[in-house]
Amino acid sequence: MKNLTVLSLIGLLLGSLLTGCGSNSGSQAHTQTEQHQQGSQHNEESSQHTREVHLTEKQESSLGIKVETLSEGNASSTISRPASVGYDLDQIAKVGPRIEAKVVKVIKDLGDRVKQDEPIALMSSVGLGKARAEYIRLRTELKAEKAHYEREKSLYEQEISSRAEMLQAEAHYQEAKASYNAAAESLRLYGLSKEDVQNIEAGSDEPLSHFYLTSPLDGVIQERDISPGQTISPSETPIHVANLSKMWVIIDAYEQDIRYLDKGQSVSLSVRSIPGETFEGKTDWVSYSLEKQTRTMPVRAVVENPNRKLRAGMFGTARISTGKERNVAMIPIDAVQTIEGEQVVFVPGNENGSYKPVEVMLGSENEGYVEIASCLKPGQQAVITGAFDLKSALTAKGRSASHGH
Description:
By secondary structure, this protein is of the alpha+beta class. It has three domains: 2-72 and 327-404, conserved putative lor/sdh protein from methanococcus maripaludis s2 fold (Beta Barrel); 78-88 and 243-324, Elongation Factor Tu (Ef-tu), domain 3, CATH 2.40.30.170; 126-208. Helix content is 32%, strand content 32%. It has eight helices and 24 strands. The protein has helices spanning 2-18, 26-36, 39-49, 57-63, 126-157, 163-189, 194-198, 387-404, and strands at residues 53-54, 66-69, 72-75, 78-87, 92-95, 101-106, 113-114, 119-124, 210-214, 219-224, 231-232, 239-242, 246-253, 266-271, 278-286, 297-304, 315-321, 326-332, 337-339, 342-348, 354-359, 362-366, 369-372, 381-385. The strands form six sheets. A six-stranded antiparallel beta barrel has the order 4-13-16-15-14-17. The protein has a four-stranded antiparallel beta sheet with strand order 1-21-20-19. It has a four-stranded antiparallel beta sheet with strand order 3-18-23-22, with no helix packed on it. A hairpin with a 2-residue loop joins strand 19 and strand 20. Helix 1 crosses helix 8 (387-404) and helix 5 (126-157) packs antiparallel against helix 6 (163-189).
C-alpha cells in the first residue's frame, strides 16, 4: 500500500514538474514552456533547472524527505583508495651493448628467469675484437719493456751500463705501462669485467670479437627485441629484465587525505583478479600536486610480491594505515544515489522545497555510514531520508524533458 502511495506521489510530482518545476499554476507552466523555446540562453537555464526537484510541503511530508546537518565523525584510521600496480622502476634493467655489435645467438627468451651476470645473448663486434687484439699486443710489449728496464737497471748497478741508458729504458717501460692500462680501461668501458680483461689470451677457441650481454640483476626477461644477425648500436637497449619481487603501487588519494598521509605508512593491497589474498608494503612517496582532471593525489607504495602473482596493470584497492583518526562528514549509505554513473547526495536548493544532486567522492564505510571525501563538509545540510524518491522524480523529469524535445 505504501509503495502505491509513493508511486502515486511520484506521478503527481512528475505532473507538477512538467508544469513549472513545482508551480501550481497552469499559466506559469505555459509561460515557462514558451521561454524554453527561446534562444540558447533560455535552454541553458532550463537545463540547469532540470537538475532540481521542487516539492510542495505536502509532497515533502508524504515522501518522508528528511534533511539534517552532516555531523563530523571519527572514521577509521585506515584510508581505502583505488590503486594500480606497476613495475618497480628501480628494479628494471634495460640491457644493450656498449659498442656496435651483431647478435650471434639469443640465449634467454621472454619469460625466462635469469641470475645476475648470467648470459642473455652472444654478440660479435669487430671494434671489440680490434680492441682486444691491441690489448694483447700492448701487454706483450709491456713485458718486453719491463724486462729491458730491469736488465738495464741491473747493469747500471754493476756499473756496466750508463745511467742514461737505464733512464731511457725506464721511460720506455713507463710509456708501455700507460698504453697497456689505457687499453685495459677501454675494454672495461665496453662492459668487460676486470677478470674478463685479464683472461684475454691470443689463440683462444673463442673469437676475440665475441662477448656476452649479461643480466645486471636477478629477474625475468620482460622484453626482447633482438634476433640473430641483427646489428645493435650502443644507444639501443633491446632487452629488459624485471625483478618482480617488489612492485610499485600507485594509489589515487583524495584532497581531503593530504594531511593524514606520509612516507613509511603501512599499505595492504587487494586486487580484483586475486580474491582473498593481500600484499603488504609501505608508502615511499606522496605527490605535492593533484591530477588536473581527476583531482586525485598520487601516492606510491612499494609492495612485496614474493610469488610474482602481481602483474603490472592490475587494479585493486589499497588500504593505508595512517595511525590517525580523521574527522570527516558522514552520511547514511542509503542517502547516496547513482545518477548517470555519478554518485550524488541531494542537498536543499535556493528555494523552499527544492533539492538538487551534488556529485561526491566516497571513502570508507562503517556500520551503515559512509565517508564523504569531497564536495560536502561537516556542518552542511543534506537529505538523509527520501533520496531514492528524489532520484526517481529527477530521472523521470529528465526523460519527460527529452521526450518533449
